[in-house]
TrEMBL record:
Its EC number is 6.1.1.22. Belongs to the class-II aminoacyl-tRNA synthetase family. Gene3D superfamilies: Bira Bifunctional Protein, Domain 2 (3.30.930.10), Nucleic acid-binding proteins (2.40.50.140). Its main location: cytoplasm. It is found in: Cytoplasm. This is Asparagine--tRNA ligase. The lineage of its organism: Bacteria, Pseudomonadati, Bacteroidota, Flavobacteriia, Flavobacteriales. InterPro entries: Aa-tRNA-synt_II (IPR004364), aa-tRNA-synth_II (IPR006195), aa-tRNA-synth_II/BPL/LPL (IPR045864), Asn-tRNA-ligase (IPR004522), Asp/Asn-tRNA-synth_IIb (IPR002312), NA-bd_OB-fold (IPR012340), NA-bd_OB_tRNA (IPR004365). NCBIfam families: asnS, PRK03932.1. It catalyses: tRNA(Asn) + L-asparagine + ATP = L-asparaginyl-tRNA(Asn) + AMP + diphosphate + H(+). Pfam families: tRNA-synt_2, tRNA_anti-codon. SUPFAM superfamilies: Class II aaRS and biotin synthetases (SSF55681), Nucleic acid-binding proteins (SSF50249). Residues 135-471 form the Aminoacyl-transfer RNA synthetases class-II family profile domain. It comes from Kaistella carnis.
Length: 481
């Protein structure tokens, strides 16, 4: 039976002087005697000591960087520094050779390659210390999300990936069709005849599961969806992906304040879970984060380390600030008056940009911030109209280094008001008849939010490019792997 390196290092005392079987990939082979083995279960390598006089020379010459091995050996206390135990090899089986011509100069040596180069080797970058740490953390974040909602009596819903609705009204959606693109049927007006398509109508890949999951909320009370979403935005920035993962809870009988409380509790729970369960990976990422900061001009350096930043988020109460108050702060700031904002704040009603959000979080309040009660003109049709008639019960959670990490609102629960807003904002009522219908049969106050998984993983790992926190990034002109 195979023992993982994580299991062995976590509870090695009961295995001392016992023979065990381990399997993994060679990270280094020194002096024809010391193998550093890693099996992906932890960022830590296990040292295997080889008595070269007892092994066939043909086996030893094929133990190279990235080759995979099965080793049977005795667990003993280490004589060297840096590890508590090591394995005295008794049997070595080579499971897979490294077939590259220059076996010691492979793509698997991350110090010699940029993150961009490793992105082009997505099938290999999981073997590096950096990306194995990032993706173990991503896995833990995903597990913690499900665990939080399960513990709080939410039901997990799978909403459609193929949809006829545009939840955001942005229009930047990928079309889905089974038409022969060289022979697309058209009607008498010369327009594409979608009635002859597979679904009998124009369909797209979803940008959000929110509208669909609201229908489940109306019967089940507390629900959430966690799945892939897609946006055909032709952007090559470090913040955009064409395919990404969204977490979207929806809760019956919740108002805006309840929604903010839920978002804060949720983020703190997930971050705390990572702090408690990913210590080795976070320590590695923390050191990398510190090294990166040293390369920046002093004025651009983070004021705290990665782990310290995460600890501060779970210890501090998020600052709650109205949009109106935030506009006053931004308008009167030195940065705005001296023209340092790329998008100057001139009047109430401005749509806040990332630079404004980060100023509020990093410079003004120095803690996570929740902005609420936005102008109705800059928010989606489904957000609840406030009594002032000017604002909607929207909320955004802003994090240092990231800006907006969660966006949500109390939803408009009144049938007449929602119908009017849909008309005013040119939302197709015929297409969304079922969504409007949910306000007919015992409508209730309700609220929810959306979290982009990759943005949260960016925050907890200290990475700076969103393409480096998803296994196979999908971006303009890039759909490899």
């Amino acid at each position: 039976m195979r023992t993982t390196i994580k299991e062995l290092l976590g509870d090695y005392k009961k295995l001392l002087h016992h023979d065990i079987t381990i399997q993994g990939w060679v990270r280094a082979f020194r002096s024809n005697r010391f193998i550093a083995l890693n099996d992906g279960s932890t960022i830590n390598n296990l040292q295997v000591v080889v008595d070269f006089e007892k092994f066939d020379e043909n086996i030893l010459k094929n133990i190279s960087n990235s080759a995979s091995l099965k080793i049977v050996g005795e667990v003993v206390e280490s004589q060297g520094a840096g590890q508590s135990i090591e394995i005295i090899a008794k049997k070595i089986i080579i499971l897979g050779d490294n077939f590259t011509e220059e076996r010691d100069k492979t793509i698997l040596q991350p110090k010699k390659h940029s993150l961009e180069v490793l992105r082009e080797q997505a099938h290999l970058r999981f073997r590096t210390n950096l990306f194995s740490a990032v993706f173990r953390v991503r896995s833990s974040v995903s597990f913690a999300i499900h665990q939080f909602f399960n513990q709080n009596q939410f039901f997990y819903m799978n909403t459609p990936i193929i949809t006829g609705a545009d939840a955001e009204g942005a229009g930047e959606m990928f079309s889905v069709t089974n038409f022969d693109l060289n022979d697309i049927p058209r009607n008498e007006e010369g327009k594409i005849d979608f009635e002859k398509d597979f679904f009998g109508k124009k369909t797209n890949l979803t940008v959000s599961g929110q509208l669909s999951v609201e229908t489940a909320m109306m019967g089940l009370g507390r629900v959430y969806t966690f799945g892939p979403t897609f946006r055909a935005e032709n952007s090559n920035t470090t913040r955009h992906l064409a395919e990404f993962w969204m977490v979207e809870p929806e809760v019956a009988f919740n108002n805006l304040e309840d929604n903010i409380d839920l978002a804060e509790d949720f983020l703190k729970y997930v971050i705390n879970y990572v702090l408690e369960n990913c210590k080795d990976d976070l320590e590695f990422l923390d050191k990398r984060f510190a090294e990166e900061q040293k390369q920046k001009p002093e004025k651009d350096r983070a004021s705290e380390g990665l782990i310290e930043k995460l600890q501060n988020v779970i210890q501090k109460r998020f600052k709650r600030v109205s949009y109106t108050e935030a506009i006053d702060i931004l308008k009167n700031s030195k940065e705005n008056k001296k023209g340092k904002f790329q998008f100057p704040i001139e009047e109430w009603g401005a749509d806040l940009q990332s630079e404004h959000e980060r100023f509020l979080v990093e410079k003004h309040f120095e803690c996570p911030v929740v902005l609420f009660d936005y102008p109705k003109e800059i928010k989606a049709f489904y957000m609840k109209l406030n009594e002032d008639g000017k604002t909607v019960a929207a909320m955004d959670v802003l994090f240092p280094g990231i800006g907006e990490i969660i966006g949500g609102s109390q939803r408009e629960d009144k049938f007449e008001v929602l119908g009017t807003k849909m008309k005013d904002m040119n939302v197709d009522e015929e297409e969304l008849w079922w969504y409007l219908d949910t306000r007919k049969f015992g409508s209730v106050p309700h609220a929810g939010f959306g979290l982009g998984l990759e943005r949260l993983v960016l925050f907890v790992t200290g990475m700076t490019n969103i393409r480096d926190v998803i296994p196979f990034p999908r971006t303009p002109h890039n759909a490899e792997f």
